[in-house]
Prior knowledge:
globular; five-stranded parallel sheet; alpha/beta
Amino acid sequence: MVSYVTDKLVYFGIRQIENGVYTGQSVGKFNQYLSIKDSLDFIVFGSSRANHHINPSLISENGYNMGMDGQKIAFSATLFKLLPNRKQTVLFHIDPENAVDDLYKADDLGSLKAVYYKNEIVRNEIDKYKKLNPLQKFYWCISFNGILFGAIKNYLKPNYNYTTYNGYDPLHVNNSSNRNVLELKEGEIQIECAKREYTLNPIYRAYLLDLKGFSEKNGKRLIFFTSPKLFDNCKEDNLFLSEEMNKMNLTYKDFGDFFGENSDVSNWKDATHMSEKGAIYFTNYVARTVYGSKVK
């Protein structure tokens, strides 16, 4: 009983600190998103290949990039479900190789453990896929394992001015970075596809249908997309995903070959992430052809 009560006192003390954090990817970016999501016109969701590739300010004056490093569909879809019932355009990143990964079990929901007791929608998603440490039901402070010191640091000394931050994190390159891209070893480049029959991961399928239903009920224009890659010699999974999206009547744009075979190496940080230069060029294309806005 003593440990239970102590845990709750400490938890609510930490929560008071956490509620004042608006910088950093542990809790700050989520808090900023919660504070502005209802007023946004344009939102980007996805992994690092969304976060580093789309500058929302080049598309809309009222946009935000909620892409987060290492996250997949469960994490982003949960954040998507927090949006209000009003007209908004959503650009949602999805990688074909992840969508057909039979081993995917929505483990990325664990990244939302810090807000398990803060948001009912997040709590329901985590419970649905059983991604909570059982002890966290009793000891709530476990919610902050691994992120507490980062949250305190950003509370005491914010990394940036969040009032001017649009969620986009550009990747800067130098000559050394460019040489590293050029000198990629042959083993790092996908030469051919593994022979297999593709199936859509059931969790991906369920979330795609959830996103479709939520969008139709809440006035969202939902556009799925795949970011460019420097090398992608396996197209079977891209074609399979495109066919599956078409069957579900979902809008999907595959930009994997956007730069073609002769892309300037300065457009790249590595084989799957564009540099700031490449991201600006790509974002402007998306603004013109997908969003329908003028290049800024």
